[in-house]
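[Discussion] Sanity-checking designs against the backbone

I'm trying to build intuition for which residues belong where. Below is a C-alpha cell string of 478 positions. I'd appreciate it if someone posts a full sequence so I can compare it with mine line by line.
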C-alpha cells in the first residue's frame, strides 16, 4: 500500500511539474543541447527558445522546468552553432548555375553569403528574393560588379572571364558608375586589380562617404600599404600582397607601372596574367622579413580583414578536383551541372607544378603569421569558381584555416561573428544569445574537437524556421 502511494505521489509530482512548467507561447524549444557561442565557447546542457525569427532565451536545462506542452526538439548529445557565412561567392560566374546555388548553400548550413562580384542586375534579384523569403533563403550581401580600370579583367571575352566587372576609363567614369551602384544600395564595394592609384583613391573616398566597406584585390598600380592606408577594408585571396614583401618590391613596382601603360593594347585579362607571371613567384621566392613586417604591421593597425580562400588555392594546386573522392562530392549538383563539370574536369590539365604548390604553402603560412599578429580573418571560397561546390566548399575552407593554425573556436568566428562585425550586424547576428536572429545549425558531432564536424548537419534553422535533415536532403535533390 505504502509503495503504491509513493508511486502515485511520484507520478503526480512529475506530471504536475511538467504541466506547471514554463510554457513559451508561439515558440519552440531546442532542449538540452551543447551550445557553442563563437565568443563564449562551449556551454553544455542548454535549452534555447526560439520565437518568430529570434532567440528569445537560453538557459541551463536543469534550471528551468518547461511544460511538455511546448514544441520541443530534443538536442541531447548534439551541438548548436550559429549559421555559417560563405564570405566570397559569385552567383553570376556560371549563370546557368545561379538558380541552384541558394538550396546548396542552405542545405550545407550556409545561412548567409557575400557575393563579391557580378553584374548588378544579375545579383540584385538574389538579394531581393532572400530579403522577401528570409526563412527559406540564405541572406545575400552584394557588391555588384568588380570596379576595374581601363583594361578591365572580367570583360566577358572568354568563359574564363565572364562579365563580372565594369570598365572605368578614367576617374570621372568611375565616379558615375559607382554613384549608380550606391543608388542601387549595394552592401559594399569591390576594387579590382587594374585600377589606377587615382581611381582607387576616388573609390575609397566614395566608399567612406557612403559608409560602405571597400574590399578587393590590391591594384597592381599600387602597393598594399598605400591601399590599406587609403581605406581598403579587406583583401581577397591575399591578392598581390607578396609584391610588397620582397627586397625587389621597388623595382617590381616600377616594372608594373611601365607595363600597365599597355603599349601593345592587350586585353586586361592577358595583361594581368602577364604581370602575375612575371612578379608573383619572383616575390614569393625572395621575401624579406623587414618588408613582410612592414606590411603585416600596417594591415594589423588598420584592421584590414583577410579572406584568404585557401581551399580554392589548394584545390587548384593539387588538382584535387580530379580525384575520385572529389568527383563523388559533385553528386549534390543538378545533373546537368554535374555532367558539365565532369566534362570540364576531364578536359583540364592534370599536371601539378611546383610553383603553384609553393604559392599555396606561402599563403597558408602567411595566414598563420598574420593571425598571430592579430589580423582578422573571414571564411570565403570563391564558389563556383575552381569547381568548388556551393555550400560544401565553405566547410573545406574551415579545414584549411585549421591547417593555418587557427583554433576551432577562432575558425567558427571567421564564418559567424566576424562576418557579422564586417557588416555591423554583431549585435543581432552571429551569436547564440537572447535577441539574436535565429540562424542556427544543429550538428551531430562537436566542431570544437574537429572542425570537419561542421559537416555533420542534423538540422538548419533559418530566421527561426526549423529544417530537419530530410528536408535539407530534399533541397539537394531538387
Ligand atoms: Zn572572387
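Best answer:
Here's mine. Compare freely.
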Amino acid at each position: 500500500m505504502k509503495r503504491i502511494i509513493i508511486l502515485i505521489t511520484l507520478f503526480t509530482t512529475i506530471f504536475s511539474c511538467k504541466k506547471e512548467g514554463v510554457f513559451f507561447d508561439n515558440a519552440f524549444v531546442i532542449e538540452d543541447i551543447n551550445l557553442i557561442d563563437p565568443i563564449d565557447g562551449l556551454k553544455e546542457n542548454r535549452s534555447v527558445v526560439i520565437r518568430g525569427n529570434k532567440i528569445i532565451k537560453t538557459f541551463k536545462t536543469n534550471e528551468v522546468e518547461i511544460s511538455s506542452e511546448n514544441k520541443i526538439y530534443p538536442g541531447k548529445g548534439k551541438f548548436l552553432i550559429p549559421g555559417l557565412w560563405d564570405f566570397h561567392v559569385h552567383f553570376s560566374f556560371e549563370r546557368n548555375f545561379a538558380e541552384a546555388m541558394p538550396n546548396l548553400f542552405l542545405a550545407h548550413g550556409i545561412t548567409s553569403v557575400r557575393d563579391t562580384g557580378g553584374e548588378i542586375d544579375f545579383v540584385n534579384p538574389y538579394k531581393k528574393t532572400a530579403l522577401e523569403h528570409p526563412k527559406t533563403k540564405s541572406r545575400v550581401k552584394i557588391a555588384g560588379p568588380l570596379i576595374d580600370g581601363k583594361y578591365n579583367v572580367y570583360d566577358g571575352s572568354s568563359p574564363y572571364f565572364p562579365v563580372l566587372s565594369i570598365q572605368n576609363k578614367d576617374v570621372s567614369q568611375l565616379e558615375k558608375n559607382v554613384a549608380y551602384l550606391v543608388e542601387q544600395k549595394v552592401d559594399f564595394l569591390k576594387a579590382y586589380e587594374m585600377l589606377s592609384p587615382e581611381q582607387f583613391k576616388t573609390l575609397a573616398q566614395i566608399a567612406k562617404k557612403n559608409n560602405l566597406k571597400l574590399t578587393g584585390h590590391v591594384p597592381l598600380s599600387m602597393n598594399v600599404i598605400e591601399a590599406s592606408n587609403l581605406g581598403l577594408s579587406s583583401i581577397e585571396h591575399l591578392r598581390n600582397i607578396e609584391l610588397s614583401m620582397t627586397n625587389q618590391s621597388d623595382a617590381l613596382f616600377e616594372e608594373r607601372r611601365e607595363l600597365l601603360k599597355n603599349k601593345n593594347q592587350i586585353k586586361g585579362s592577358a595583361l594581368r596574367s602577364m604581370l602575375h607571371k612575371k612578379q608573383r613567384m619572383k616575390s614569393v621566392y625572395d621575401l624579406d622579413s623587414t618588408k613582410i613586417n612592414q606590411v603585416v604591421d600596417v594591415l594589423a593597425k588598420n584592421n584590414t580583414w583577410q579572406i584568404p580562400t585557401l581551399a580554392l588555392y589548394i584545390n587548384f594546386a593539387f588538382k584535387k578536383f580530379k580525384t575520385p573522392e572529389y568527383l563523388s562530392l559533385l553528386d549534390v549538383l543538378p545533373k546537368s551541372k554535374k555532367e558539365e563539370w565532369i566534362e570540364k574536369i576531364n578536359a583540364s590539365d592534370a599536371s601539378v607544378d611546383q610553383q603553384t604548390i609553393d604559392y599555396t604553402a606561402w599563403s597558408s603560412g602567411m595566414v598563420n603569421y598574420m593571425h598571430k599578429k592579430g589580423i582578422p580573418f573571414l571564411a570565403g571560397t570563391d564558389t563556383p569558381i575552381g569547381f568548388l561546390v556551393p555550400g560544401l566548399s565553405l566547410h573545406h575552407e574551415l579545414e584549411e584555416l585549421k591547417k593555418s593554425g587557427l583554433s576551432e573556436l577562432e575558425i567558427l568566428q571567421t564564418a559567424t561573428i566576424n562576418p557579422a562585425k564586417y557588416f555591423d550586424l554583431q549585435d543581432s547576428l552571429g551569436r547564440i544569445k537572447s535577441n539574436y536572429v535565429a540562424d542556427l545549425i544543429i550538428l551531430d558531432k562537436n566542431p570544437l574537437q574537429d572542425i570537419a564536424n561542421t559537416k555533420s548537419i542534423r538540422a538548419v534553422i533559418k530566421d527561426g524556421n526549423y529544417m530537419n535533415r530530410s528536408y535539407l536532403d530534399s533541397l539537394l535533390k531538387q
